[in-house]
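Issue 218. Parser rejects a valid record. Input:
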Amino acid sequence: MARQLEEQIVGRFPVGKRLRVLDVGMGRGVQALRLARAGHQVTGVEQDAASISAAREAFAGEPEGIRERMRIIEGQAGDTGVHFLPGSFDVVLCHGVLMDDVEEPDALLAGVARMLAPGGMLSLLVRNGDAAAMRAGLSGDWAGALAAFCPPTTSYGLKRLTSTLAGIGAPLHTWYGVRVFTDTAADDAVLPDDLDAVLAVEDRAGRTDPYRGVAALLHLCGVRG
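Output the parser choked on:
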């Protein structure tokens, strides 16, 4: 997904422009650090103390020039309006925030989108509600697969996300599937010897119909008009 995000940034903004980036639900700061190393000014919002500690530890090992481009704010994803003025950022990341049960997810997305400057890009990563039964089914969990055919009302599929992004002023520009073939791999699995081939296949599938439609996750990029 990092490759896809970089692709969209390079294609949308002038080469060499230092962007103002907001990473909502920054986690351990992996993506934030990657963007800061690329020269951008990155602000991360995170509420989990352990994740914040891990991010700060990672940032501390960077050269001063990179550390100066990074800032962490402890807070909830829905509180962006408390900390920032509307239109303050060129790129807003909201990756994984809507994976869990979130009250009023559409309102949260609307608040995040208000942080975008005109022409700014919202990068959104969510669980694919259109393919909720895939992982359970491929794992042989038939009861779980049957239950997943009736996803909760808070789940997102492509059609709902397209409508939501249009409604919050950041219409869908492009989208990808993430984890088409590899979603059943264990988190602690040993990396395969042919990792480059695996990544190449996943990247190709994530861009190609009909494969991307059954990916475990959806990566969508909306653009503020």
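Fixed in the parser; the record now loads. DSSP finds ten helices and seven strands in the chain.
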